Request: fold
Amino acid sequence: MRTLFRNGLVLGLIVASFAACSGGGDDDYVPSEYEYAYVVNNGSSNVSAYAIDSSTGALSALSGSTFPAGSQPASMAIDPAGKFAYVANYGSGNVSAYAILALADWGQAAGSLEAISGSPFPAGSGPNAVVIDPSGKFAYVANSNYVSNNVSAYAIDSSTGALAALPGSPFPVGANPLSITIAPSGKFAYVTNTGNNNVSAYAINSSSGAWTAIAGSPFPAGSQPVSVAVDPAGKFAYVANEWYDTVSAYTINSTTGALTAVAGSPFPTGYYPASVVADPSGKFVYVANAWSANVSGYAINSSTGALTAIAGSPFPAGSNPVAIAFDPTRKYMYVANKESNNVSAYAVNATSGVITEIAGSPFAAGTDPVSVATLRIVR
Reply:
């Protein structure tokens, strides 16, 4: 029997940075960079936090980790400024919001999560995925499990991180929406409707955050589309089809946001692909194959969007890999292994796309890890 929560994952990489002032007018001050990874544990209802070793990619648990979330948390997103983090709690029907500590404070390690006032914020039934738009102004949550079948939309208070429902929210989508991604331009949103075997597409109002369905939407996908990703250039979209063991590829109309299937699509994956991501360079796509315990890697044809398997693909992972994220430097990849209760870490060859497991991997997580997000802090 398949587990629902593995499908609403972190869809797409969140990389954030912000600068802290040196103070005192020290002209010799040289800022330092620190990297962190966060893993959402669906079974233990919390978030594990780690420092990333920028030289090796190894993970070290932060002092004070783990941090509590709601019931059965399914997805995490970090705002582009690196100030706030949000977790969709499937079992609680809400969203936990946190401030991210840039500096150690009162015994808490830098990178720690601190619940903000008013958290958690209400969502629909079965919130399974959360994303932040590139401007950092809006948050969107997919409410799945065939009850709400909509997306809750919020304005983010830039000072406190608090969420306020947008006028018109929630916005209707298809049946059992499990994944959302926002195009890098911030102009378009895409939602996988697992119950309808298609992808809904929307234009985003940059001022209000409201969604308007794009002409031709929804667009057909394979059977049980569970994850959607857009490449960094905003030219192509990719959808993992769980029951077809394929990934569908589309070109994106830069003006309208409409999707057109790429010639040769869909492309084969491993068994039960649970998550798809495009790497930050825009050269590669990776798919976590839950039932074959590996990761498929593909090179993207920059002209057509077609996928070609990378040499050595698929690459071994843990048991039931369900989510993928890259570190902020783009050198390392992290994969949440739901049934292994750990995270596999890989070095990424920037030229070939080949991934190689690093020393010490896999790293222990909580129970049923299902989502990964990363962050860079400059201070």
